[in-house]
Amino acid sequence: MPRSSDPLDAAPSPFNLGVDNALKLLHRIAPLDVWMLTRIEGNEQIVVRADDHGYGIEPGTAFDWGNSFCIRMLAERGPRIAPDVQQVPAYREVLAAQDNPPASGSYIGFPVQDHEYGMYGVLCAMHPEALSRDLEGHAEEIESTVAVIEALLRQRRQIDELEREREALELEAYSDALTGARNRRGWQIAVNAEEQRCLDHSLPAGIIALDLDHLKAVNDQEGHDAGDRLIAAAGRALRDATRENDIVARLGGDEFAVLLPDTPADNLPEIAGRRRSALTTSGVSASIGYACRTVSGSLDQAQANADAAMYADKRQRRGPPAS
Fold it and tell me: Rounded to two decimals, what is the model's pTM?
């Protein structure tokens, strides 16, 4: 559900507050100019939280994952703690690819695991100068902080799951009678709630837009009861093919949408393919489009992009107009 504008509700989430305090503590232990918790999505390294003292980095900032210290650290081409990155050939590659590279710098990076989902991202720090102090001596404290952040991730997922369960119960009042899916009002409430989670935690989310084929022809040739059976079959197929936290909605006569929380763009083609197969098995033909929420965008924009992709799919499947 949308969150209240009450000042108490504007307080940082327990996850953000815990990570922020952990980053502040790390800055006191090893005072590099910026400490960040980042997650990986496609070819982007996205800043989830940051304790910045010089770079101007904020949550939501995205870096090129392919040209980062962190990707090289994870490939074991460079150490987790580098007091002088110029002394590490793999890290010099990163500097060489920059337009105005610094003369040197320090880097720290430790992988963070999401125990349900695998690799989450990297806890990392940067400094514009090489530091002579014994950074390597802080490895144990940093590893302990990683363990704390991984515990916070597990707690955050549990809280998100409870929130979605509560929202699902409240959304029962916004169901479409024919399909059992959410109606347009229920859809917008669910999208607003997920948008807030995306903003709070820099989470990915996807949307699938679907439009049934030939509904008008079925209504005209076989009657509206047959058209209703087609719509109901589509709703059942989509609901049966969804994951626990996905939201299926009927937005109009033959128009459906699926909200996919915590889903990166790379996963969308396979998920959309499963929806199409489920519909086909149920004897329903549909045009499908999908899009992922971008870090700088919104779920409303993702829905508009998914709609555009769905209409492009419809045109392609119909073929060129007869001459």
Answer: 0.77
